[in-house]
Design a protein that fits this description.
InterPro entries: DUF6086. By secondary structure, the chain is mainly alpha-helical. The protein is built from four helices and five strands; from the N terminus they run ββαβαβαβα. The protein has a three-stranded mixed sheet, with no helix packed on it. Strands 4-5 form a two-stranded parallel sheet. Strand 1 and strand 2 form a beta hairpin.
Length: 138
């Protein structure tokens, strides 16, 4: 069994029920955390519609939120979702506005103490999204 994430008549992703359930659950969590809608419609009869305009804003807010953190646990918990969201966004042909890289702690909202060394989370997310896109069924 599987579910469909569609944009109009185009299927963007056709994951297994388990993968779809996890993704939709995390979408709801991040809608709450970010305070913005995702553009991922309700799953009805194993199908949901993706609104690319709303989804683009959601992905932008997600990347801005992630850029403001410097915490290993948040990094570990969010990395897979961000990569999946980016891969779906690529298929929906949304524009992705990457935040300018931050140095130091200025403007950050979640910082692990002691701070872990900064790494290129955005580069890692891009690579993970490319890898996932190759394996995400349509």
């Amino acid at each position: 069994m599987s579910q469909y994430f569609d944009m109009g008549d185009e299927t963007l992703w056709n994951p297994s029920n388990g993968a779809a359930q996890l993704f939709v659950g995390q979408v709801g969590l991040y809608e709450d955390v970010l305070g913005v809608p995702s553009g991922i419609g309700p799953m009805e009869s194993d199908e949901c519609q993706v609104d690319p305009v709303v989804y683009e804003a959601f992905v932008g807010a997600l990347l801005t939120w992630r850029d403001r953190t410097q915490h290993r646990v948040i990094d570990a918990l969010s990395a897979g979702f961000i990569a999946t969201a980016l891969a779906l966004g690529e298929r929906a042909r949304i524009r992705v506005d990457w935040p300018e890289p931050r140095m130091g702690h200025e403007g950050r909202t979640d910082i692990e103490v002691p701070a872990f060394p900064q790494h290129d989370w955005a580069g890692t997310a891009r690579e993970q999204a490319r890898e996932l896109d190759r394996s995400m069924a349509r």
